Amino acid sequence: MRSHTTIKFNPPVIGHRGACAYAPENTIASFTKAAQLGVKWVEFDVMDAADGQLIVFHDESLDRTTNGHGEVSQYPYAYLDSLDAGAWFDLRFSGERIPKLRTVIDFLQEAHLSANVEIKALPGHEERVVKQVLEQLAPYLLSANNQFLFSSFSVNALRLLRKYSPECLLGLLLHEWEPDWESICRSLHCISVNVNEEIMTEAAAHRIKAMGRLLLCYTVNDPARAKQLFSWGVDAVFSDVPDKIVAFS
Ligand code: G3P
Ligand code: MG
User: Fold this and answer.
1) Rounded to an integer, what distance in angstroms lies between the CA atom of residue 238 and that of residue 241?
2) How far apart are the CA of 205 and the centre of ligand 1, in A?
3) In the chain, pLDDT over 70 holds for what percent of residues?
4) How far is the CA of 138 from the centre of ligand 1 (A)?
5) Domains delineated in the chain
6) pTM for this predicted structure
Protein backbone atom coordinates (compact mmCIF):
# COMPACT_ATOMS: atom_id res chain seq x y z
CA MET A 1 0.00 0.00 0.00
CA ARG A 2 1.27 3.47 -0.84
CA SER A 3 1.66 5.79 2.12
CA HIS A 4 -0.09 9.11 2.50
CA THR A 5 3.23 10.87 2.09
CA THR A 6 2.56 10.44 -1.63
CA ILE A 7 -0.35 12.89 -1.31
CA LYS A 8 0.06 16.63 -1.05
CA PHE A 9 -2.70 19.15 -0.47
CA ASN A 10 -1.23 22.44 -1.56
CA PRO A 11 -3.27 24.60 -1.30
CA PRO A 12 -4.97 22.70 1.55
CA VAL A 13 -8.43 22.76 0.00
CA ILE A 14 -10.54 20.33 -2.01
CA GLY A 15 -13.23 21.88 -4.20
CA HIS A 16 -16.49 20.34 -2.98
CA ARG A 17 -18.47 18.95 -5.93
CA GLY A 18 -16.19 21.27 -7.94
CA ALA A 19 -16.75 24.81 -6.77
CA CYS A 20 -20.42 24.40 -5.99
CA ALA A 21 -21.07 27.86 -4.58
CA TYR A 22 -20.24 29.31 -8.01
CA ALA A 23 -21.45 26.74 -10.53
CA PRO A 24 -23.90 23.81 -10.51
CA GLU A 25 -22.44 21.02 -8.42
CA ASN A 26 -20.84 17.97 -9.99
CA THR A 27 -20.86 19.41 -13.52
CA ILE A 28 -17.98 20.16 -15.86
CA ALA A 29 -18.77 23.87 -15.31
CA SER A 30 -18.18 23.37 -11.59
CA PHE A 31 -14.89 21.51 -12.09
CA THR A 32 -13.77 24.15 -14.60
CA LYS A 33 -14.52 26.88 -12.05
CA ALA A 34 -12.57 25.03 -9.36
CA ALA A 35 -9.54 24.81 -11.64
CA GLN A 36 -9.84 28.53 -12.43
CA LEU A 37 -9.87 29.29 -8.71
CA GLY A 38 -6.51 27.59 -8.28
CA VAL A 39 -7.43 24.38 -6.52
CA LYS A 40 -5.48 21.19 -7.26
CA TRP A 41 -8.07 18.80 -5.81
CA VAL A 42 -11.79 18.38 -6.36
CA GLU A 43 -14.32 16.07 -4.75
CA PHE A 44 -17.28 14.51 -6.55
CA ASP A 45 -19.89 11.81 -6.05
CA VAL A 46 -20.33 8.71 -8.22
CA MET A 47 -23.37 6.47 -8.67
CA ASP A 48 -24.83 4.33 -11.43
CA ALA A 49 -27.72 4.93 -13.81
CA ALA A 50 -30.34 2.24 -14.50
CA ASP A 51 -28.25 0.86 -17.38
CA GLY A 52 -25.14 0.65 -15.18
CA GLN A 53 -23.36 3.70 -16.63
CA LEU A 54 -21.43 5.61 -14.02
CA ILE A 55 -22.45 9.22 -13.48
CA VAL A 56 -21.21 12.06 -11.32
CA PHE A 57 -24.20 13.09 -9.22
CA HIS A 58 -25.00 13.63 -5.54
CA ASP A 59 -28.67 13.08 -4.70
CA GLU A 60 -30.72 9.91 -5.08
CA SER A 61 -33.43 12.11 -6.61
CA LEU A 62 -33.26 14.23 -9.75
CA ASP A 63 -35.47 16.97 -8.37
CA ARG A 64 -33.07 19.37 -6.63
CA THR A 65 -30.36 19.72 -9.27
CA THR A 66 -32.00 18.96 -12.62
CA ASN A 67 -35.24 19.63 -14.50
CA GLY A 68 -36.13 15.94 -14.10
CA HIS A 69 -38.11 14.20 -11.38
CA GLY A 70 -37.89 10.95 -9.50
CA GLU A 71 -35.15 8.52 -8.63
CA VAL A 72 -31.89 8.74 -10.59
CA SER A 73 -31.47 4.97 -10.46
CA GLN A 74 -34.70 4.45 -12.44
CA TYR A 75 -33.36 6.02 -15.63
CA PRO A 76 -30.77 4.96 -18.21
CA TYR A 77 -28.00 7.40 -19.02
CA ALA A 78 -29.55 8.36 -22.38
CA TYR A 79 -32.47 9.92 -20.49
CA LEU A 80 -30.31 11.48 -17.77
CA ASP A 81 -28.17 13.03 -20.51
CA SER A 82 -31.25 14.79 -21.89
CA LEU A 83 -31.80 16.68 -18.62
CA ASP A 84 -30.64 20.17 -17.77
CA ALA A 85 -28.34 20.10 -14.73
CA GLY A 86 -27.42 23.78 -14.73
CA ALA A 87 -30.50 26.02 -15.05
CA TRP A 88 -31.69 25.28 -11.48
CA PHE A 89 -28.51 27.00 -10.26
CA ASP A 90 -28.50 29.93 -12.65
CA LEU A 91 -29.83 30.36 -16.18
CA ARG A 92 -26.26 31.15 -17.29
CA PHE A 93 -25.59 27.44 -16.81
CA SER A 94 -28.53 26.18 -18.89
CA GLY A 95 -27.49 23.20 -20.95
CA GLU A 96 -25.04 21.76 -18.39
CA ARG A 97 -25.39 18.00 -18.32
CA ILE A 98 -25.07 15.27 -15.72
CA PRO A 99 -21.58 14.08 -16.66
CA LYS A 100 -20.50 10.50 -17.09
CA LEU A 101 -17.56 9.56 -14.87
CA ARG A 102 -15.50 9.06 -18.05
CA THR A 103 -16.12 12.66 -19.11
CA VAL A 104 -14.99 13.93 -15.72
CA ILE A 105 -11.87 11.74 -15.79
CA ASP A 106 -10.96 13.21 -19.19
CA PHE A 107 -11.45 16.72 -17.83
CA LEU A 108 -9.24 15.98 -14.80
CA GLN A 109 -6.47 14.79 -17.09
CA GLU A 110 -6.60 17.94 -19.20
CA ALA A 111 -6.81 20.23 -16.17
CA HIS A 112 -4.17 18.32 -14.15
CA LEU A 113 -6.57 18.06 -11.23
CA SER A 114 -6.49 15.36 -8.55
CA ALA A 115 -9.74 14.02 -7.17
CA ASN A 116 -11.49 12.52 -4.18
CA VAL A 117 -13.94 10.08 -5.73
CA GLU A 118 -16.81 9.52 -3.31
CA ILE A 119 -18.76 6.32 -3.98
CA LYS A 120 -22.48 6.94 -3.46
CA ALA A 121 -23.78 3.60 -4.74
CA LEU A 122 -27.20 2.52 -3.56
CA PRO A 123 -27.27 -0.54 -1.29
CA GLY A 124 -26.80 -3.59 -3.50
CA HIS A 125 -25.08 -1.59 -6.25
CA GLU A 126 -21.74 -1.23 -4.49
CA GLU A 127 -19.89 -4.09 -6.15
CA ARG A 128 -20.73 -3.18 -9.72
CA VAL A 129 -20.06 0.51 -9.09
CA VAL A 130 -16.72 -0.12 -7.35
CA LYS A 131 -15.52 -2.54 -10.04
CA GLN A 132 -16.43 -0.12 -12.82
CA VAL A 133 -14.91 2.90 -11.06
CA LEU A 134 -11.63 1.03 -10.59
CA GLU A 135 -11.71 -0.19 -14.18
CA GLN A 136 -12.27 3.30 -15.58
CA LEU A 137 -9.59 4.85 -13.38
CA ALA A 138 -7.02 2.03 -13.66
CA PRO A 139 -4.99 3.72 -16.42
CA TYR A 140 -4.61 6.83 -14.26
CA LEU A 141 -3.99 5.48 -10.76
CA LEU A 142 -0.23 5.51 -11.15
CA SER A 143 -0.06 8.62 -13.33
CA ALA A 144 2.10 11.50 -12.17
CA ASN A 145 -0.47 13.87 -13.66
CA ASN A 146 -2.96 13.55 -10.84
CA GLN A 147 -3.92 11.46 -7.84
CA PHE A 148 -7.12 9.74 -6.76
CA LEU A 149 -8.40 9.22 -3.24
CA PHE A 150 -11.48 7.01 -2.92
CA SER A 151 -13.97 7.43 -0.10
CA SER A 152 -17.45 6.39 0.94
CA PHE A 153 -19.85 6.47 3.86
CA SER A 154 -20.50 2.83 2.96
CA VAL A 155 -18.02 0.54 4.70
CA ASN A 156 -19.10 -2.16 2.27
CA ALA A 157 -17.98 0.02 -0.65
CA LEU A 158 -14.65 0.67 1.09
CA ARG A 159 -14.13 -3.06 1.68
CA LEU A 160 -14.83 -3.73 -2.01
CA LEU A 161 -12.43 -0.98 -3.09
CA ARG A 162 -9.71 -2.57 -0.96
CA LYS A 163 -10.59 -6.07 -2.17
CA TYR A 164 -10.33 -5.15 -5.84
CA SER A 165 -7.48 -2.67 -5.49
CA PRO A 166 -4.92 -3.43 -2.77
CA GLU A 167 -3.02 -0.33 -3.90
CA CYS A 168 -5.70 2.34 -4.08
CA LEU A 169 -5.74 5.29 -1.70
CA LEU A 170 -8.73 5.03 0.64
CA GLY A 171 -10.38 7.58 2.91
CA LEU A 172 -12.85 6.67 5.66
CA LEU A 173 -15.76 9.12 5.47
CA LEU A 174 -17.44 9.90 8.79
CA HIS A 175 -20.63 11.88 9.26
CA GLU A 176 -20.69 10.84 12.94
CA TRP A 177 -18.21 9.05 15.17
CA GLU A 178 -18.96 5.39 14.47
CA PRO A 179 -17.90 3.17 17.41
CA ASP A 180 -15.56 1.05 15.27
CA TRP A 181 -14.11 3.76 13.01
CA GLU A 182 -10.53 3.23 14.19
CA SER A 183 -10.52 -0.50 13.55
CA ILE A 184 -12.11 0.00 10.11
CA CYS A 185 -9.51 2.63 9.30
CA ARG A 186 -6.67 0.31 10.29
CA SER A 187 -8.00 -2.88 8.74
CA LEU A 188 -8.70 -1.22 5.38
CA HIS A 189 -5.41 0.70 5.42
CA CYS A 190 -7.16 4.02 4.94
CA ILE A 191 -4.68 6.82 4.41
CA SER A 192 -7.16 9.49 5.46
CA VAL A 193 -10.13 10.10 7.70
CA ASN A 194 -12.59 12.51 6.10
CA VAL A 195 -14.73 13.95 8.87
CA ASN A 196 -17.80 16.15 9.10
CA GLU A 197 -16.38 19.40 10.45
CA GLU A 198 -19.36 19.74 12.82
CA ILE A 199 -18.12 16.83 14.94
CA MET A 200 -14.42 17.70 14.79
CA THR A 201 -12.67 18.59 18.04
CA GLU A 202 -9.04 19.33 18.79
CA ALA A 203 -8.72 16.07 20.76
CA ALA A 204 -10.16 14.03 17.88
CA ALA A 205 -7.84 15.75 15.43
CA HIS A 206 -4.81 14.88 17.56
CA ARG A 207 -5.99 11.28 17.84
CA ILE A 208 -6.27 10.90 14.07
CA LYS A 209 -2.91 12.54 13.46
CA ALA A 210 -1.37 10.26 16.12
CA MET A 211 -2.65 7.31 14.06
CA GLY A 212 -0.56 8.64 11.18
CA ARG A 213 -3.54 9.40 8.96
CA LEU A 214 -4.31 12.42 6.86
CA LEU A 215 -7.21 14.39 8.27
CA LEU A 216 -9.69 16.06 5.93
CA CYS A 217 -12.81 17.96 7.03
CA TYR A 218 -16.03 18.75 5.16
CA THR A 219 -17.67 21.17 4.41
CA VAL A 220 -15.80 24.28 5.49
CA ASN A 221 -16.80 27.60 3.95
CA ASP A 222 -15.74 29.92 6.78
CA PRO A 223 -12.04 30.85 6.61
CA ALA A 224 -11.92 31.39 10.40
CA ARG A 225 -13.11 27.81 10.97
CA ALA A 226 -10.58 26.57 8.42
CA LYS A 227 -7.83 28.42 10.29
CA GLN A 228 -8.86 26.74 13.56
CA LEU A 229 -8.96 23.29 11.92
CA PHE A 230 -5.53 23.79 10.33
CA SER A 231 -4.15 24.77 13.76
CA TRP A 232 -5.41 21.40 15.06
CA GLY A 233 -3.50 19.56 12.33
CA VAL A 234 -6.20 19.18 9.68
CA ASP A 235 -4.46 18.60 6.34
CA ALA A 236 -7.14 20.00 4.02
CA VAL A 237 -10.79 21.03 3.99
CA PHE A 238 -13.53 20.42 1.46
CA SER A 239 -15.08 23.75 0.52
CA ASP A 240 -17.87 25.09 -1.70
CA VAL A 241 -15.89 28.36 -1.84
CA PRO A 242 -12.34 27.07 -2.32
CA ASP A 243 -11.04 30.51 -3.33
CA LYS A 244 -11.80 31.81 0.17
CA ILE A 245 -9.68 29.07 1.70
CA VAL A 246 -6.93 29.44 -0.92
CA ALA A 247 -6.79 33.20 -0.27
CA PHE A 248 -6.47 32.62 3.42
CA SER A 249 -4.00 29.70 3.48
O1 G3P B 1 -16.69 13.79 0.77
C2 G3P B 1 -17.06 14.89 1.56
C3 G3P B 1 -18.52 15.21 1.40
O4 G3P B 1 -18.80 15.36 0.03
C5 G3P B 1 -19.42 14.16 1.97
O6 G3P B 1 -20.75 14.52 2.01
O7 G3P B 1 -23.05 14.53 1.22
O8 G3P B 1 -21.51 16.31 0.47
O9 G3P B 1 -21.29 14.00 -0.39
P10 G3P B 1 -21.70 14.84 0.76
MG1 MG C 1 -19.54 14.08 -1.61
Assistant:
1) 9
2) 19
3) 98
4) 23
5) 4-50+112-248 (3.20.20.190)
6) 0.96
